[in-house]
Amino acid sequence: MLRTLSVALYLTLVACFAAGLSASEVKTIEWTDLMPEEDLKLLEQMPEVQHDYSQPSPFDDDYKGDDPAAQQWQQIMNSAKVVEKYNNTKVRVPGFVVPLEFDSEQNVTSFFLVPYFGACIHVPPPPPNQMIFVNGAKGLKADMIYSPFWISGTLTTDVMTHDLGQAAYSLKVDKIEEYTY
Hints:
Layout: H1 2-24, E1 27-28, H2 37-44, H3 68-77, E2 89-102, E3 107-114, E4 132-141, E5 149-156, E6 160-162, E7 165-167, E8 169-178
Parallel strand pairs: 1-2, 4-8
Antiparallel strand pairs: 2-3, 2-5, 3-4, 5-8, 6-7
Helix pairs in contact: 2-3
Pfam family, one: DUF3299
Protein name: DUF3299 domain-containing protein
Keywords: Signal
């Protein structure tokens, strides 16, 4: 009887420990994972861009035509649609830092995480569903922002708007690591 009770207690503890591990497991994701399927399909079906500079480009902000590719491009670039299954999920995602706030020692305290270097600064920002607002950063020096990082934490589908862009996702950071492939 005592042995059966010990085995039952042991199995209960193992089950509780295993459940705790799966609940806190960090999922490594890619940027395309954050795009709803319909947005990803639109992006994959984009026609090849023609580089005929003698004609107005349907991808220019002041384009006045009715090119379907331009309309499709605008739909993709303005999409704030999210993938709900990632709401309140522990994730790890690679990206580049676009600083938004600093502390008195020039440490970055909040930033947009973006999929490519220079986003929001030298080029138009990525779509909102390809930007993550990150807060709670510690120890990220301003001179480190030219390198890619792995950012781990709890991802939510909370929208954050700033002068530099709009993020359809937010992340409470747990860990920042230099990016390694």
